[in-house]
Write a structure and sequence with these properties.
Helix 3 runs antiparallel to helix 6. It is globular and about 55 Å long. By secondary structure, the protein is α/β, with parallel strands linked by helices. It starts with a strand and ends with a helix.
């Protein structure tokens, strides 16, 4: 199965503190993917090797924003007439929508597979060594073993485990599970960013619909809206296991912090309407 991580396809990688151990037991097959434009695919392949996914992982081509005609998408019912960009910096709706539709493409590939879970990255994802070291200190052998273990800790009814949240209001989060010393799963009010996340099939079906019908916000904001509506259940790893490496994207060229209050009041109100 192309793009699947299982006990037969896992690799140690170059660093045993990062790669997926070949003797990992009890890990369900996970379809590993990263969305990437052509100029980022070399980095993504190196990233796959670093985390131990290696050749089993799949690169999902990104969507070129110049190919999107907003008027046509509105007429077809794909995008809402009331679409509202919510990025940190000024940019076009096409930029956000290109990212959303790229995630929709990856999610569809996961749903078309036989895997129980999908692990989806954006092209600028990077390992957060501070968080990984907490798992290593507890006996975990690497990133993929840590990710695999999260399923058993996730709360009942979960849709997504956000592995690289950003710009969240962390002071209002509540602990849902203790993972290792210093690391927990939390529910929080604004778990933005989709640099890295683990999704189950039910969560993927929900996003598959909402990323293709009357899209009103960027993909990560749509997730927050669905959670506010009790239609989608996000739990997040903190400290996050993945960060952004600073490659320029729709929200700027910096690694967005895990916790902040940028635009929280206004954006929370807009997302709730």
């Amino acid at each position: 199965r192309q793009g699947s991580v299982s006990l037969d396809t896992i690799s140690n990688g170059d660093d045993s503190n990062i790669g997926f151990p070949v003797d990992l037991k009890g890990c369900p097959p996970i379809k590993v993917m990263s969305i990437a434009m052509p100029d980022a695919q070399e980095y993504v392949r190196e990233f796959f090797t670093e985390i131990g996914a290696g050749e089993s992982a799949e690169v999902v081509p990104g969507v070129n924003r110049s190919s999107l005609n907003i008027d046509d998408l509105v007429k077809r019912g794909t995008v809402s007439r009331d679409y509202q960009p919510l990025g940190i910096v000024t940019h076009t709706p096409q930029a956000e929508l290109a990212t959303t539709f790229a995630h929709a493409r990856a999610i569809r590939r996961f749903l078309d597979s036989d895997e129980e879970y999908g692990l989806i990255f954006e092209e600028d994802a990077a390992v957060n060594q501070q968080s990984l070291d907490m798992f290593i200190s507890d006996g975990y052998k690497g990133v993929m073993q840590a990710v695999c273990s999260l399923v058993k800790y996730a709360p009942e009814g979960w849709s997504e485990i956000n592995l690289g949240r950003c710009n969240d209001k962390c002071e209002d989060q509540s602990i849902q599970a203790h993972l290792v010393a210093g690391a927990t799963l939390v529910r929080s009010p604004l778990p933005l960013c989709s640099a890295a996340y683990l999704i189950n099939r039910n969560g993927a079906r929900i996003l598959d619909y909402h990323f293709n019908h009357q899209v009103r916000f960027a993909g990560d904001s749509t997730r927050v809206v669905l959670q506010l509506q009790s239609k989608y259940n996000i739990t997040s790893v903190t400290p996050r296991l993945f960060k952004q490496r600073g490659r320029c994207g729709v929200n700027g060229c910096a690694n967005s912090p895990e916790c902040t209050n940028w635009g929280l009041e206004s954006n929370s109100a807009r997302l709730a309407t």
